[in-house]
Amino acid sequence: MKIVFLLLCFFLVGCSNPSIYDTYVKELEENENISLDIPFDIEFYIDSVNENRLIYQVIIDNPQIDASNVKALVIHNGKTDDIFPSVGIVDDPINLNFEKGIILLGYANKVENLIFKVLIEVDDYQYIYRYNY
């Protein structure tokens, strides 16, 4: 009886589907197709929190297209246990036609060659921006 229960537990845990957030993060990590023409202004601000940690802000605004259904995600290549900042993926998409902009805020450990990627998705179009720190 215990063996059947353990097998059932392993089966249920092993077959669980990744969340939509995890799917977006994995796809952005693997995607190297950086967009050449992004119809948004993207600004990065990075400051030290202490000798080992950074805080970063990504501001997305000034859309040059209809931006009524915007999702965004920022990831980096540093090792972290933190979640990456996002909007519109696990919550409702943003309508940038009426909002001032999107600010995504996160933390990263200080490492050499820290690389950020920003995904902006509007309806069926995806734009990927890369920022080297």
Keywords:
133 residues; alpha+beta; Immunoglobulin-like; three-stranded antiparallel sheet; 2 helices; 18% helix; 39% strand; disordered N terminus
Account of the protein in words:
The chain is of the alpha+beta class. The chain contains 2 helices and 7 strands; from the N terminus they run ααβββββββ. Strands 4-3-6-7 form a 4-stranded antiparallel β-sheet, with helices on one face. The longest helix is centred in the first third of the chain and has 13 residues. It starts with a helix and ends with a strand. The N terminus is likely disordered.
Q: Which H/E pattern describes the elements?
A: HHEEEEEEE
Q: How many structural domains does the protein architecture include?
A: 1
The average pLDDT score comes to 89
Q: Which CATH class?
A: Mainly Beta
What's a concise summary of this model?
With 133 residues, the protein is α+β, with helices and mostly antiparallel strands. It is 18% helix and 39% strand. The longest helix is centred in the first third of the chain and has 13 residues.
